[in-house]
Amino acid sequence: MSTTTSHEEEQLILDSLDRFLETEVKQHVHQLEHDDIYPTEIVEKMKALGLFGCIIDTEYGGLGLSTDTYAKVISRIAETWMSLSGVINSHLIMASAVQRHGTPEQKAYYLPRFATGELRGGIGLTEPDAGTDLQAIRTVAVRDGDHYVVNGTKTWITNSMYGNTIALLVKTDPNAQPRHKGMSLLIAEKGPGFNVVRKMEKLGYRGIDTCELVFDSYCVPVDRLIGGVEGVGLKQVLAGLELGRINIAARGVGVARAALKEAVAYSQVRKTFGKPICEHQAIQLMLGEMATRVEASRLLVESAAKAFDQGERCDMEAGMAKYFASECAVSNALDSMRIHGGYGYSKEFNIERYYRDAPLLTIGEGTNELQRIIIAKQLIERNPA
């Protein structure tokens, strides 16, 4: 089923978001990021704006935005502070799993609470020995009457310290072959046995909580098995990862655009050899390349988002957008640093933050090496000889 947002509605939402970012966020970013402090007050205001319900259907109290409009929301947030985009992205992948695959009862109970941010969190996939290869997870859920008893460890889980709910990927049948047929997805709310053991220290993407979790005889009611059927968890997760990769790509657009804007502005005020550096051909070549990267990335994200909205298979399109936009963010951050010279290397300027934040985008939601393999496989499948 296709999803669209009218141009007028989209513009109202983006204008409101721009005002919020300008008046409530921008002035606080430098200190919060530098000190790695969770932006509690900003998150509460994001709840009031309805951002935790961006792509949740209106019948459940969400904004019901198209993925195309949602991607624009994410790119604007990331342009101001990439960490904030993660506060809602992981949450909405969880919400999307329930919206797309949940039982009617699960949708009726959880989606309104997800939309307001009363219940919020993310997805519990990665483990110390399982990242890209999710079928290698070891967290096990054993049925015991009307509960599952969960034991295992998850790591690099966003929104797990200050959030209260995650979509948890587990093995309900560790001996199943092929392995994915033994995997299930549970709605896991915090409670006894759900332990946040440490916050991960990161190069960038600071301010947001990314943690390691240990589940020790943690009980989940059977009615929180998403869809009510065991063995389809990986399939449910992979559908959400298409959305996640579009989100990562949108963040890449935002970071790349921020780096470009600051480079363009600085190049007009910084002078060398008697003229602004923007008049030097070497700088012009860099700016031209940076601007082209931003526009190409934006168009790839738009293409993938529209395919997702139409319900089309878009792992290739999402993979292209994620791969290209994230690499562009890395390149633009470095080029902007070079244009800024020594100031780009200083913690007093934003450029070094872009330089630290951007590399995460090449890793998260499936490495860029994996994206290129997915693109190639789909290319062959769609174009048989």
What does this molecule look like?
The protein has 385 residues and is α+β, with helices and mostly antiparallel strands. It has three domains: 7-120, Acyl-CoA dehydrogenase/oxidase, N-terminal domain (Butyryl-Coa Dehydrogenase, subunit A, domain 1), CATH 1.10.540; 122-231, Butyryl-CoA Dehydrogenase, subunit A, domain 2 (Beta Barrel); 235-382, Butyryl-CoA Dehydrogenase, subunit A, domain 3. 53% of the residues lie in helices and 15% in strands. The chain is built from ten helices and nine strands. The chain has helices at 7-35, 40-49, 67-80, 82-101, 104-116, 233-269, 281-309, 315-340, 351-361, 368-382; strands at residues 121-124, 140-144, 147-158, 165-171, 183-189, 194-199, 210-221, 271-272, 275-276. Strands 2-3-7-6 form a four-stranded antiparallel β-sheet, covered by helices on one side. Helix 4 (82-101) runs antiparallel to helix 6 (233-269) and helix 6 (233-269) runs parallel beside helix 8. The mean pLDDT is 95.
